[in-house]
Each structure stands twice: as structure tokens, then as C-alpha cells.
Write a structure and sequence with these properties.
WH-like_DNA-bd_sf (chains A, B); alpha+beta; Winged helix DNA-binding domain-containing protein (chains A, B); Arc Repressor Mutant, subunit A; WH_DNA-bd_dom (chains A, B); 3 strands; WH_DNA-bd_sf (chains A, B); homodimer; elongated; DNA-binding
DNA sequence: AAAGTACTTTCCATACTGGAAAGTGGTTGT
DNA sequence: ACAACCACTTTCCAGTATGGAAAGTACTTT
């Protein structure tokens, strides 16, 4: 019934949402997509890893080191629960946060 | 595109969501519904008032003083925008935060 | 050897949150 | 009249967390 404090902070919510939509995402891609600094992504990524919500994979692309993040099952479950809680909190207002089949607006009750 | 920091903190999100669903709500009702202390509700309420998101009305019920909160138009607009942003952030995952006609589950894509 | 890439850590200064406790203004009980 | 109570409001007090800047690590490229 509570909003998971590991996920709720804006930056982490965005990271988790992004990862929930992809298999795996590159450090640089996430950083640029969210528009955060290296240090912020590194720190928030670690926080999510410590919570067991994401898995960090290090590897190479050619000879350059790269880091990838991916949601763990636990992280996905936590995100799903988080979104469910958000829904319970927000939905009485009649507003929806629901995308239509192919992404659509937020509006008053349908 | 950003999650309004005035609304985002859990307690305030819950206050605003509750007010968005009602015309007006009594201090005690909100406090008990959210399960927060007097001081927390008082402080967060003031924060929302300062932001111009809610209006605080003081009156009496018999001879006892009572306080009511109601969302201002500005507050409602901010909440709507907030929810829209939430949707943009969360929806790529395929999860929805949308209630069905009469409140329903969160699930995978429909 | 110097510079660059891809992060990670440390440092720092600033919020912000919530609980406890004290305070305010008016009311009810004895 | 005086103590106790109601309905909040404020103050006091930690304890956290956040983000940017800068320094550090480990390589690789020029």
C-alpha cells in the first residue's frame, strides 16, 4: 500500500520504467535518455542494484568497456507493485494514467 | 516533462489525489485516511497551499473549529499534468495505471 | 607520454521528511 | 474559575537523500 521508496524518487522511477520497457539498456543510453549526469546514474544504479532490482553487466564493445543494466525479476515485480499502488492512489480522482493501445492521452473518466 | 516536486512526495501525492476525488475534505478525515500525524498533514498542507494547489478553509462544526482542504483549479491542473507525466514515464513499460470503468487492476498491456 | 573513454567515488552543501513536543485559541467539565 | 481537552500549528531535531563537481580508476588511442 506504500510507494516503494527505492523506486519512487524521480530518477529511479525513470530508470526502472526505462528498463521495464527494454531487455537491457546501456549506461550511456540511459544517462542520455534521462538527461542525468554520470555520477547520478552511477549512484542511483548502484542503489537499485543493492536493492536487487537491477542487474549490472559489464562487458566490452570492441575494446571499450560498457555497462548494461537490466531489471531483475524482483525489480520487475517491485515495479509492477509500485505501479499498482500508484493506481490505487491516483484512480479515485477519475484521472487515468493509462495509455491507449498505442499510447494516448490522460483524461477525465472515460 | 518533469514530475512536479510539489506533488511527487508520497504524502503530498496522496493528499492531492484524495482531494482530486472530492469537493472538499476535512483535516481529520484526510489525516486518518492517510494515516499521518497532525503535524505532517499540517505541514504538507501548508506546502500545498503555499504552492497555490489547495485552498484551506476554516470554519466551525457546532463550536468546534474545523479545517477543510480543497484543490484549487491550479492544483487540479498541476495534478492532471503530473499524472500525464507519470503516464509518459511509466507507459513504455507496457504497464498501465489505468482503472477500468469501475476501478480495476494493473496489468500487462491490454 | 598525453589525452580520451567509461564509469565510480568522494566531497559537499542543500534540501526535505517525519516524529515529538510545545504552543495557540477556544470550549467543556467540575 | 481552573484544569483538561480539541483541533490544529510551529518549533525542534535528527536522519536521509539528492545532485553537481571534481578526483580517481583502468584502459585504450593518438
Amino acid at each position: 500500500m506504500e510507494l516503494d521508496p527505492v523506486i519512487h524518487p524521480p530518477t529511479r522511477l525513470q530508470i526502472v520504467s526505462l528498463l521495464a520497457a527494454a531487455e537491457e539498456a546501456e549506461f550511456g543510453f540511459v544517462r542520455d535518455t534521462l538527461g542525468v549526469s554520470d555520477s547520478v546514474l552511477s549512484k542511483q544504479g548502484s542503489a537499485l542494484e543493492t536493492a536487487g532490482y537491477i542487474q549490472v553487466r559489464k562487458g566490452y564493445v570492441g575494446k571499450r568497456p560498457k555497462t548494461w543494466f537490466r531489471l531483475t525479476d524482483r525489480g520487475r515485480a517491485a515495479f509492477t507493485a509500485y505501479v499498482a499502488n500508484l493506481q490505487r492512489i491516483v484512480s479515485p480522482s477519475g484521472l487515468t494514467v493509462a495509455p491507449e493501445e498505442r499510447g494516448q492521452a490522460v483524461g477525465r473518466p472515460r
